[in-house]
Structure formats: C-alpha cells, structure tokens
Amino acid sequence: MINIEKTYEFETKHDLVVEFKSENFGLKVIGWEKETSEFFIKLDFEQADEKKVKIEDIVDAKYNKKKNTLHIELNEPDNIRHISSQFELRVPHVTKVIGKSENGGISIENLNGVQTITTENGAIKMDHVNGKLVCETENGAIKLIDCNGNTNLKTENGAVKMKDCEGDIILRSENGSPKIIGCKGNLDLINENGAVRVLKAEFDKASIINQNGSIYYEFTPIDKGQFKFENKHGKIHLIIPEEVPYKIEAINKLGRFHVGLKGDYDGLEEGLNLGNEKKLNMVQGSGKVEISAKNQMGSINLMNHPLKGGNFKFDMSFMSDIMDNIPEEYFDKRKIIKKIEKAKKKMKNIDIPDMKNIMTEVMEDVQDNIKNVYNTVSSEEFQEKVEEKISDGISKVMEKSKEQSLSEQERNEVDERSRLKILQMLADGKITADEAEKLITAMEG
Q1: Which of the two ends of the chain, N or C, has the fewest CB atoms closer than 10 A to its terminal CB?
Q2: Residue 219 counted as domain residue
Q3: Residue 400: which domain range?
Q4: How far apart are CA 206 and CA 236, in angstroms?
Q5: What DSSP character marks residue 251?
Q6: Quick check: 210 and 234 in contact, CB under 8 A?
C-alpha cells in the first residue's frame, strides 16, 4: 500500500473564491480566522502496475493572486485502487465555493458567502454557513444545519434534512424524504415520491406539494401567514396549536377528514362520498393564519398535538368497512361484526413492536383477501373466508412482533410502499376504486 500525505499553503485573502472539481474524491471545506489557506491531503492506495504515481497525478492546486481564486482539481489515475482518502481545505471565513463532484461528497463548515455545489453521486453537507446556498445532487443526500440565507435545493435520488435554518427555501425532490426541523422564513417545497415532514415550523409562508407520500407539518404559535398543502396519494397531517388564529379551507376527494381541533366546522358530510369532493371550513379567532389543504387519495388530519412516539397499535377497523359493502344475503353480518369487535377489544391495548418488515406483507394480504371476499357467492364460503382471514391477519402480526416498535419515519415508509401497491393494483384492474379507497382508509387509520 502506498501512503501520500501533504499540505499545500496559499497566501490567500478574504473574499476568496474556491473552484473545486473532483472525479472520485470528496472534499471538506472549513472556515477559520486566518487569511491564508491550507489544503491537507492524506491518501492510501494500491498500484495496479509498476508506474510510479506522484501527488501531481492526483492533485492540481493553483492560486491566482490577482483574482484571489483558488483552483483545485482531483483526479484518480487509472492505475491505482483507491483505499481511503482525506481532503481538507481551510480557508478564510468569507469564502465563496463553487464545487462539482462526480463521485464524492462535499462538506462546508463555518463560511460566509454564496455556495454553489453540484454532485452526481455524493452527499452535500452545510454546517453554520451564512449566505445563499445552491445545492443540486443526482444520487446523494443534502443536509443543512444552522444555515442562514436563502437556499435553492434539488435532489433526484436522496434524502434532504434541514435543521435550525433561516431564509427562503426552494426545495425540489424527486425520490427523497425531506425532513425540516425548526426552520424560519418561507418554504416552497415540491416532492414526488416520499414522505415530507416539517417539525417545529416557524415559517411565515409555506407551500408543500407532494405526489406519492404523506405530508406531516407542525405549526408553532404564529399570528398570521399563508400555508398551502396539496397531495395526490398520501395523507396530510397538520398539527395546529390551540392559540393559532386559523382559517382552514380543506378539500378531500377519496379520503376522510379526522378533526381533533376544538370548535365547529362546516361543509363536511358524514360518510365516504366516493368520487365526490368533501369540503371542510373552520375558523378560529382572527383567521389570519390561512391554511389550505387539498387531497385526492388520502386522509386529511387536523390535530392540535404532535404525534407521539411509542408502540404501534393494530387497527382492525378496516374489517368493519369491508362488511358495510357486502350484501347481507351472503352472510350473517351481525355475527361477523360481533366477532370483529371482540378482536378489536383484545388488540386495542397490545403493543406490537418491529412492524417494519411485516406491515407491507399484511397490507398485501388484506388486498388479496378483499378481492377474494368480493368474489364470494356463497354465504357459507364467505363466513369461512372472513373468519379465516381475520385469524390469519392477527396471527401473522402477533407471531412476527418481537423487536423494537416502528418509528415515525418507518411508519411513513411502510405507508408509502403499501399505498403504491394499492394504486398499482387499481391501475392493473385487480381492485375497484371503492376497494382502493377502503384499503387506503384502513391503512391510515
């Protein structure tokens, strides 16, 4: 194994511009009090032939004093096998970084200035960075902590996490699960596949649009603002404290409303009303916090307390929904419902851990079971099948429940996989729209 270790020193000034390009290496940039810059390199690798590899074959570092520009380019020669590496650049606090990496992450700490970072297969991390941030990655995660400034983020296949950041946020995510905690400013978020979670939000204005995944948003006490939530396939869960003077206008097409807020609301009729939009209007106080929520296939939950952790509770209410849509001549409905209620009481207070790998299986079984039930033509066959499926479903859950309880993120992931499976069955003609709605309603509890 060959070891290379070297430190480059540059007589830079503040307002430095760093131009970084890398093929297969990552970079960490740290701001410090000095005006000078240091570039530390540590690399372990093996050679594929006898040709000697020099540091200049890997690192091209040049400083332009006139322009106060530091250019760094990293390349991996074909005749080496990269084992491990450390590339750390220390620069003045006021530094602008323009970085591009093909197969490596870029991390920036304690800088002031505009940062423009693009990666193809590497994570992007910003920690205590002040200034405009432009981050784009194809197959990497984005993480921002304690950043101050407007941000423009785009990821194709990677999670996004922001914590304690302030500024206007524009976020576009294709296959990720954005999580935003304790951030201030304005939020414009469009996500395609994955759960969106916004906790301890202090935004003055927010627009969240999701396509295949849930939306969870926690309001903090605010006096005014405008908020829009739209979803196609997934629930919308809003936490609205009692002291918020809200004006809520919500529309749901294939899904239910669950309202845990104090006060009255208008326009909502009981029942599923499949195929027809259901509207809900609710006002408290001045109504200066304007909230609009629109969903196509999934519930809209309006609550005044955040979700609590803890063990998963198995909900068998979906079986009662199934019974409501089966002609009574096929079976003794009262007898079956009585058995379901007994099962629900027994399951109600039982903690069921380690649901991560089994909820999807259970949902697939439920889908198949409903399809079989609707094809039943004999009352005796129907009773046997319903009783058998209830028994099988409970047994499967109980037998596999042995480890930790499901976390909030894991529950969201299971919900998404199950929802997409249901939608695929609907598209394939294996179930009807009515059955799909029942399944999604059951899944969301």
Answers
A1: N
A2: no
A3: 317-444
A4: 14
A5: E
A6: yes
Within 8 A by CB and 6+ apart from 343, the residues are: 316, 390, 394
Within a domain: 227: no
Q: Classify burial at 424, counting beta carbons within 10 Å of its beta carbon; exposed 0-12, middle 13-18, buried 19 or more.
A: exposed
Q: What is the chain's alpha carbon radius of gyration, rounded to the nearest angstrom?
A: 27
C-beta of residue 385 within 8 angstroms of C-beta of residue 374: no
The neighbouring-strand residues paired with 56 are none
In the three-class reduction of DSSP (H, G, I as helix; E, B as strand; rest coil), residue 311 is classed as: coil
SS3 assignment, position 26: coil
The greatest distance separating any two alpha carbons of the chain, rounded to the nearest whole angstrom, comes to: 90
C-alpha 11/C-alpha 92 separation (Å) is 11
Residues in the chain, overall count: 445
The structure tokens listed for 175 are 């296959």
- The strand pair at 179-181 and 169-173 is best described as unpaired
Burial 29-39 (b: 16+ CB within 10 A, else e): bbbeeeeebbb
* Residue pair 198/176 in contact by the 8 Å Cβ criterion: no
pLDDT at 321: 44
Distance between alpha carbon 90 and the CA centroid of its chain, in Å? 33
State residue 18's pLDDT score: 97
Which of 76, 104, 132 is the last residue in one of the domains?
Answer: 104
What is the predicted pLDDT for the residue at 78? 76
Closest by CA to 282, choosing from 240, 304, 250, 260, is 250
Low-confidence ranges of the chain (pLDDT < 70): 82, 267-276, 307-417, 442-445
* Cα 199 from Cα 201, distance rounded (Å): 5
Number of structural domains found in the chain: 2
